[in-house]
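Discussion board: Methods & Data

I've been asked by a reviewer to show the raw model output for two of the constructs in my manuscript, not just the figures. I'm not sure how much to include, so I'm pasting the format here to get opinions. Each protein appears as its amino acid sequence followed by a line of discrete structure tokens. Is this the kind of thing reviewers expect to see in a supplement, or should I convert it first? Here is construct A:
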Amino acid sequence: MSGGWNTVESDAGVFTYLLEGLGAKGVQFEELFALDEDDLYRLSPVYGVIFLFKYLSGDDKAGKNSKQPEDGEYDFEAVENMFFAAQTIQNACGTQALLSVLLNQSDKLALGPHLTEFKDFTSGLPSDIRGECLSNSELIRTTHNSFARASPFVDETQRTATGDDDVYHFIAYTPVNGTLYELDGLAPAPISHGPCTLETFPSAVLPVLQRRIARYPTTEIRFNLIAMVQDPRINARAIGDMDTLQAEARKRDAWRWENALRRHNFVGFVGELAKEVTRAKLTAGESEYESWIEGAKARTKSQRETNRKRGIEE
């Protein structure tokens, strides 16, 4: 793998295991399918959310060349008392947004030795140098890239955005020192959105997200929102909630399977499979080939039904 940063998907399973790969414990991500305050409160404690969106055509990237952002206010003084890093490399914004929540909630979460050392080392540095430290961290880059979808056609280190490309970006929202902050590595400073605590975070962040989405045409639906929450298994173990523990075990098994698939390039396999199918069709003849296909479909359907039943019983 090259020394660059590859793109990762905005996916709860990817981000949860990315965190664990970096050594953090006791947290996971949950996808949010609606901007519903009650749903967010049900996930409490919610340490922050990560928002993926498409840049508007002609948008000034996070207001970098503006005196103030479109919503909220830049808080340049806050940088000294929180973790805020400038994004200095392409494709790193997903992991950077994740760390923007995690490292600002370090008093409530178990970071693990590597991230604790990284936070302590960068705590007195300006945001641009923090960004360089993040981009040059071998552990963070390697862990990030281990969740990138394999592609035999695109070298992400050479990818450049043109005016015709859809460009997407991750940012984070989290409460720090009694204030709701928007943390965007392309912005010159954290963006303050007013008073907020961990307890009031769901009701404080949703109006900010709604205003941001309202800037887009009503036909635009390409947004994704995931929340960093406490690992549900912690409370489930404490109260002996076996149903939740079993549900979470199934969820994590599915995440592990999906993450394993992301690491593999199946183009060669598909190519060889197509060759064999064509060879079998030419050898067996059209009628026998069709019979073979129908039999394979029936066996696949039967196997899926068996697996589904086993999953319910387990």
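Construct B, same format:
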Amino acid sequence: MFKNLIEMKKSFLWLLATAPLAVCAQTKPYTLTGELKNIKEAPSKVFLWYAVDGKPVTDSATVTAGKYAFKGDAAQPVNATLILGAGNPRTAEAKNTATVFLEAGALKAISIDSFSNITVKGGAANTAYDQLKKEQKPVSDQMQALMGEYRAAYEAKNEEKLKTIEARYDSLDELSKAGYESFLKKNPTTPIALYVIRNWMPYDIDVEKLDPIFNKLPEATKSSASGKALQAKLEVAKKTSIGKEAPDFTMNDTLGNPVKLSSLRGKYVLLDFWASWCGPCRRENPNVVKAFNEYKDKGFTVLGVSLDQPTGKEKWLKAIHDDGLTWTHLSDLQFWNNAAAKEYGVQAIPQNFLIDPQGKIAGKNLRGEDLEKKLAELIKG
């Protein structure tokens, strides 16, 4: 689980860098000057990543005598990622990345000892982000330390230690999410609200918690491109929340035959979104196999939906065979544009929905022992 979280966090940095942001004709100029202090062997370049309408934008600046500068235009605060010495946030080390909000006016960034230890002065968004970091620091420091412990235990193949670290990390992750929720409740009109929400609920939206907070956001925030994108995701989450009827769809199986989700009515169905290229999915597959074998004769089945790419059919079929996945599998081989994934608001995998015999959603994201516990609770005898 912890290794999965590390992978997901690295992917999430990329998602934040490329998330849709507001665009407005009335932009104003900004300047961002940066200074590096006590950073040994600092590279000669700093890269800047952000997005406009979901399309990534990158810029670079040369470091001269420990200083660098960027300039541009922004209509309202734009969440961006600074990377020291590397142009890709996916591959950069955490110590070499930093978050900044590009907003009108003069911004000054100072990094001390490490690039990520950055303070940005200027603008309401950067002031709010600085406050958020201070509130989250006790938890984030512990999480960062645990990552180091986890790597050491993983290399030593100490399974007991790994399990202990995973449990501690999960507890800290819940504290971190509670901190984001508390920040939003205290600051409903904060200019970094959408950034906080993406950190609080990066993949799976809790409608009951998010809906009242979203409704309190300023109209300008809700009507921005990012706000509208979040609202669309919220509406999908409402349609796929527990107790709602599962949206029906038809998709081809491995032989090209169309299969309709509703054709499985009368059974408990685990609608399982995965892909052959997804490491966390492949590591979760043995748990799904175990649950399937335990309950397949008691009114339970699995319907796999793969987010493999257009050229990935052979890899998809091989993964099914290698992992012993003996249930029905569907895919349109459209990667993240998979029609069923979009219908269910899937933004990360593995993700699943447990559907009851009447076609209503009875559970979500049930992994490991949680899936078997839920099935034991629902399926009598």
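Answer (T.O., handling editor elsewhere):
This is acceptable in a supplement if you add a one-line summary per construct. For B, something like: The chain has a mean pLDDT of 90.
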